[in-house]
C-alpha cells in the first residue's frame, strides 16, 4: 500500500526527535499512529539526495514478500520526489528532494540487543525459544523465499509477544534464483563483528547469514556482546 508523505509527517509529528524509536547509519525509525489507531514503525531512508532507487525498490519488494510469523508485517511505503530550485553564486541549480520510507508493524518490546548482556533478563527457556524462532525465520528466508538477509544482528531482531523474534530491516538483503545461494557485489555494507569475512570482499551467500547467526547465538548464550560499527564502502 502506498502512503503519502503528508500523512507520514502528520503521524510522526513531522519526524520529530520525540518520535524516534531507532536509528542506524542508513535510516531513522519513527513511531507513528495511523488514523485507524494502528501503531506503526516508519523507516525513513537517510541521504535523500543520493538514495539508490533500485536498492529502495528491492527493500520494499523483499519486505512485502517475507510474510512470516518471524518477520515484521509490511504496512506500506512512500516514494515522494519534489523538484527544488537553488541559486548558488549566480548559477541556477535544479535538484530532486527525494523521500523514501517503509512502514511495518510496531513491536513495543524492543530489540534483542537490549535483552542480552549484563542487564539481560532472559532465562534459558526464553533464549531457546528466541533462537528457535530466529532459525525458523531464517530458514523461511533462505529456503522458501531465496533471500539472503545480509545484516543479521541482535539490533535487527525485534521481540514480539511471548518472546517471538521478528526479523526486520531488509535494506541489505538480496534475492537469488533457484539453484543459486551466493553472489558478488561492489556495494559492501554490513556490521563489523557480525559480517562474515568474505562479505568484506563483496562475496555474499546464505552461509554469510549462518556466520552472523552463529555470532548472535554465542552472544545470546554467553551474555557477551560483540557488536561493531556499520560498514559502507565501494570496491
Distance between the termini: 36 Å
- Tally of individual helices: 4
Gross CATH architecture of the largest domain: Orthogonal Bundle
**SSE order, one letter for each helix or strand:** HEEEHEEHEEEEEEEHE
Instruction: Please give the CATH class of the largest domain.
Output: Mainly Alpha
Strand order of the largest sheet: 1-2-3-5-4
- Range of strand content: 25-35%
Secondary structure: helix percent: 10-25%
| CATH superfamily label of the largest domain | Transferase(Phosphotransferase) domain 1
CATH topology tier name of the largest domain? Transferase(Phosphotransferase), domain 1
Report on the architecture of this protein.
There is one protein chain. The chain has 235 residues and is of the alpha+beta class. Helix content is 25%, strand content 31%. The chain has helices spanning 5-11, 53-65, 124-144, 206-222, and strands at residues 20-23, 27-33, 39-45, 74-88, 91-105, 147-148, 157-159, 165-167, 174-175, 182-184, 187-191, 203-205, 230-234. The strands form five sheets. Strands 1-2-3-5-4 form a five-stranded antiparallel beta sheet, sandwiched between helices. A two-stranded antiparallel ribbon has the order 6-9. α3 runs antiparallel to α4 (206-222). It starts with a helix and ends with a strand. The mean pLDDT is 86.
Compose a concise summary of this entry.
By secondary structure, the chain is of the alpha+beta class. It has 4 helices and 13 strands. The chain is globular, with a radius of gyration of 19 Å.
